[in-house]
From TrEMBL:
Its EC number is 7.1.1.9. The chain crosses the membrane at residues 22-43, 64-82. Residues 214-313 form the Cytochrome c domain. It holds the Pfam family COX2_TM. This is Cytochrome c oxidase subunit 2. Its cofactor is Cu cation. GO terms for molecular function: copper ion binding; cytochrome-c oxidase activity; heme binding; oxidoreductase activity. It comes from Labilibaculum antarcticum. Belongs to the cytochrome c oxidase subunit 2 family. Gene3D superfamilies: 1.10.287.90, Cupredoxins - blue copper proteins, Cytochrome c-like domain. Residues 93-203 form the Cytochrome oxidase subunit II copper A binding domain. It is found in: Cell membrane; Membrane.
Length: 314
């Protein structure tokens, strides 16, 4: 993956880079000019040469000068910024639409044919529109190589669009702090030629990862796809949620409606915990950090996850 500067990675790179270059150019010019002037004044008007300071009570020409010049500079910077920003809101009618869903702490991309992936696949040299949705807290989709960033507020419709200009794989980050595992909320966008994208898109296999024959392999794929490992460890270490190491079949103390009780971690409990995660909280962990996956996972998917969990028992 890459986040380095690539001039034609998307159609917005030139506009954004130009505005930054203009602003930086103005900043450096005045940094050098003002610093040089100050140094000159230090020597030119030092006490030895001017023992009695000259009192200046005002200068209309100077007031006009340092009001007009900054105004012009601000308008120049605004112009280049606006010229880079305005096209980002003008989406072509024939743009290829993908739904981008952000939740703690993973991304999911949903295509019109029903495919769902945790990596964004897009065709080369074709307009792509992302309909952005946040299911829990504020997230922010950032593709640095494309010079694109958009905050995603729950309950509010947002979008971004772009035309990928070069084949390759590029970094995608969340740049709005969204909780303990915020730093792990990253993925990539893969740009491929139109013919390769068409072949991938019409493939009826929704999971691009090859499934091996070993026990729990499909469950592991489902777990990774839905970002479960951001909160649940596999080695016994404590994260946001209980570790899955030796968890299945174990008896845990859970808190339910303010009361504690002993609960065997069986199929029924796991299904309810995935669909209604705040009903029974394992003692020592916080309530309200996990959202329901009722719309994302069928019971058959959960059965595969359970098969994977069984492989973690000693």
């Amino acid at each position: 993956m890459t986040s380095k500067a690539i001039p034609d990675a998307s159609n917005f790179v030139k506009g954004v880079d130009t505005s930054f270059e203009v602003i930086l150019g103005i900043i450096f010019f005045f940094l050098i000019a003002i610093t040089a002037t100050m140094i000159y004044f230090v020597f030119r008007y030092r006490k030895e040469r001017n023992p009695v300071a000259t009192q200046i009570h005002g200068s209309v020409p100077l007031e006009i000068l340092w009001t007009v010049i900054p105004t012009i500079l601000v308008m120049v910077m605004f112009y280049y910024g606006w010229m880079g920003y305005k096209p980002m809101k003008e989406v072509p009618d024939d743009a290829f639409v993908i739904k981008s869903v952000g939740r703690m702490w993973n991304w999911q991309f949903e295509y019109e044919n029903g495919k769902k992936t945790d990596t964004l696949y897009v065709p080369l040299d074709r307009a792509v529109k992302l309909d952005l949705v946040a299911l829990d807290v504020i997230h922010s989709l950032y593709i640095p190589s494309f010079r694109l960033k958009q905050d995603i507020v729950p309950g509010k419709e947002q979008m971004m669009w772009f035309i990928p200009g070069r084949e390759g794989e590029y970094d995608v980050f969340c740049t709005e702090y969204c909780g303990l595992q915020h730093s792990s909320m990253q993925t990539s966008v893969i740009v491929m030629p139109q013919d390769k994208f068409d072949s991938w898109y019409i493939d009826t296999t929704k999971t691009v990862t090859l499934i091996s024959d070993r026990p729990g392999a499909l469950g592991l794929t489902i777990v990774k796809k839905n970002g479960c490992l951001a909160c649940h460890s596999l080695d016994g270490s404590k994260l946001v949620g209980p570790s899955w190491k030796n968890l299945y079949g174990k008896t845990e103390t859970v808190v339910s409606k303010g009361e504690t009780r002993e609960q065997t971690i069986d199929r029924a409990y796991i299904i309810n915990s995935i669909y209604n995660p705040n009903d029974d909280i394992v003692k020592g962990f916080s309530k309200g950090l996990m959202l329901s996956y009722k719309n994302e996972l069928q019971e058959s998917d959960i059965d595969e996850i359970i098969e994977f969990m069984k492989t973690l028992n000693d």
